[in-house]
Amino acid sequence: MKIKAIIKSALYPIYERRLLRRLDLANTPNHIGVILDGNRRWSKENPSPTGDTSARRGHIAGAEKIIELLDWCEETDIKVVTLWLLSSDNFKRPSDEVQSLLGIINDAVERLRSTGRWKIRPVGSFDLLPESLQKTLKEIEASTANIEGITVNVAIGYGGRLEIIDAVRRYIAESASFGKSAAEISEALSAEKVDQYLYTAGQPDPELVIRTSGEQRLGGFLLWQSHQSEFYFCEAYWPDFRKVDFLRALRSYSLRERRLGK
Q: Which residue ranges form the domains of the chain, and what is each CATH number?
């Protein structure tokens, strides 16, 4: 088994270069969404030398993978990346795990800012987050707003149905503030209007959504925006996600015929 692992580790860089060389960068997505799934299962199935299989260890390993992913995105000319770091449903987990995860996310987003390479845009329901984290995220968004580079949406406290509800509420509230009647508000409501009030307003919809860990469902991720997205489900847990897996996802995308209802 060790010999096979050594052979694989030697061959993967060659395979990566081959995949990248054959990839048509003119046909890669502008925006990808990534569901970073499998951190806890990875930790349980891959104990540390001291026997640690905690969820915290898995979440830390997952956070450390993010910058690698963004490096690969830069190399393949992707312009926008949406990372689902914490769902609104995750707040149903034990409070000690949620608090630990929020701390890890805070550190991960700070680390992204420290690179000075990417425009960080938090998306989600801030009301679910501690005030200290809300403040940090707003500061990071403001301090990276003028950076020329990939726009990185960090989805924290995010739920797709919640986003749509929030968008419609904001549309109604703003319309009512201009004195419009219920009938006028209803008459003017359209898909284009809702687009303007989403967390990702002003950005292109994702052409590709990747989910790790073998689960084949969206779980509420970018429900509105992904109506014409391609999906790629990878068996690897997020901490084990490799550049080869990423390039395979892009290759799969490039080979699909996107008719977009035409």
A: 2-158+204-254 (3.40.1180.10)
